[in-house]
């Protein structure tokens, strides 16, 4: 079935880096724009970044621009989020999500289970 | 402070109808971008509930419906059930902020 499985979360000190991965299965990964969305503990959802189906276009939320980098390897059906210069406020569950075709704007039709990234000294 | 404004909480008794509002601006909902709704059960990932303002993905009961007018949208749930107790988020696109969410609404089934 269609599935997204995130990994790579953990505890890291402020200023350090962390790389998250999202393994996709059950659909043609190389045909879809993909997103990262995060949720701080007890808070709402925040869109973080997205990447086009072929990796040629990337977009970021202002809160992470210049610090985070989204990428993908279509040969491995895997999405990545490289997080650098991490701050305490980046602490969150990070979800990868598949883009929904055919809407005006962005929407997310399939979500992974999430991976927790904790930034703490 | 979220770009889209939702009430923090709503409640209703089993069988009743509840609505959740989502208010945006002329740079997002009012600019013609679609509104989508997600349901997040406790301890789980969000699930797409309504897309394109009023369409339901396969498997979502027709008790859930969405609408949009001007700079606002709303989610209606009829025949409320205990299993509907969850957090609900609206989401749209903003011309300068890209993907934007509401702050979420906690639905309590009394």
| Quantity of strands of chain B, as a count | 9
Specify Rg of chain B, calculated over alpha carbons.
Answer: 13 Å
Overall shape of chain B: globular
Residue ranges of chain B: pLDDT <50 for 5 or more in a row?
A: none
Sequence stretches where pLDDT stays below 50 over 5 or more residues of chain A:
none
Helix content of chain B: under 10%
Biggest interface found: A-B, 25 and 26 residues
The amount of helix of chain A comes to: under 10%
Helix and strand run of chain B: EEEEEEEEE
How many extended strands of chain A?
11
- SS strand fraction of chain B: 35-45%
Q: What is the averaged pLDDT score of chain B?
A: 95
How far apart, in Å, are the first and last alpha carbons of chain B?
Answer: 28 Å
Radius of gyration of chain A: 14 Å
Strand content of chain A: over 45%
Determine the mean pLDDT of chain A: 96
Helix segment count of chain A?
0
Specify the biggest β-sheet of chain A.
7 strands, mixed
What overall geometry of chain A do the principal axes of the alpha carbons give? globular
Distance from first to last alpha carbon of chain A: 40 Å
Order of helices and strands of chain A: EEEEEEEEEEE
């Amino acid at each position: 079935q269609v599935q997204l499985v995130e990994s790579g979360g953990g505890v890291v000190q402020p200023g350090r880096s962390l790389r998250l991965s999202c393994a996709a299965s059950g659909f043609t990964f190389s045909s879809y724009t993909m997103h990262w969305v995060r949720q701080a503990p007890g808070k709402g959802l925040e869109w973080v970044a997205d990447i086009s189906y072929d990796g040629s276009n990337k977009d970021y939320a202002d809160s992470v621009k210049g610090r985070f980098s989204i990428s993908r390897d279509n040969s491995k059906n895997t999405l990545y989020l490289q997080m650098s210069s991490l701050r305490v406020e980046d602490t969150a569950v990070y979800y990868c999500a598949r883009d929904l075709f055919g809407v005006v704007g962005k929407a997310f039709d399939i979500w992974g289970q999430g991976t927790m990234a904790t930034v703490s000294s | 402070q979220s770009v889209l404004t939702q009430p923090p909480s709503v409640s209703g008794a089993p069988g009743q109808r509840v609505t959740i509002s989502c208010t945006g601006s002329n740079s997002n909902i009012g600019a013609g971008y679609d509104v989508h709704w997600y349901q997040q059960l406790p301890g789980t990932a969000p699930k797409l509930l309504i897309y394109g303002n009023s369409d339901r993905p396969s498997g979502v009961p027709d008790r859930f419906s969405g609408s949009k007018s001007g700079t606002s949208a709303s989610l209606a749930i009829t025949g409320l059930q205990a299993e509907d107790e969850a957090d609900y988020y609206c989401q749209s696109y903003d011309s300068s902020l890209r993907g934007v969410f509401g702050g979420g609404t906690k639905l309590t089934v009394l």
